[in-house]
Amino acid sequence: MSLTHVDANHHANMVDVSAKEITQRSATAEALVTVNDAVSAQFDGSDLISKKGPVFQTAILAGIMAAKQTSQLIPLCHPLPLDSVKVDITFADHTATIHCTARTTGKTGVEMEALTGASVAALTLHDMCKALDPAIVISQIRLLKKTGGKSDFLAQP
What we know:
Elements: E1 23-34, H1 37-40, E2 49-50, E3 53-54, H2 55-68, H3 70-73, E4 82-92, E5 95-106, H4 111-129, E6 137-147, E7 153-154
Helix pairs in contact: 2-4
């Protein structure tokens, strides 16, 4: 097996998906954001409330917007017509867990869209809470699951 975005001469290239079948494709990514006591104290049971507004709701919108812009951010990604992007955030023990699920019907997967959505949601949470915690840690940005196309993937727990 070889890298898909590198040709025989070791030059970057966009993968040719013209011969692939159109299938339903889905991917879910996760990012963890760990905050201090001061930020945790702002949790009202459903969202973190900051001077900039509702943190989770803003991060959710940012994640959705980012997923839709993935091909403009990552050079070799195909622009995809996304059928759905959903971002969920839960909070417990000083950690926000962000899940981003992207879906499309097309010739290539949506892993990068899900990863981009989760990443930007995490960065938005950091931006909105950094006044109370400049040492926020974003970690474990990873693909959890993908379906559709040639193969499926499920991360090990």
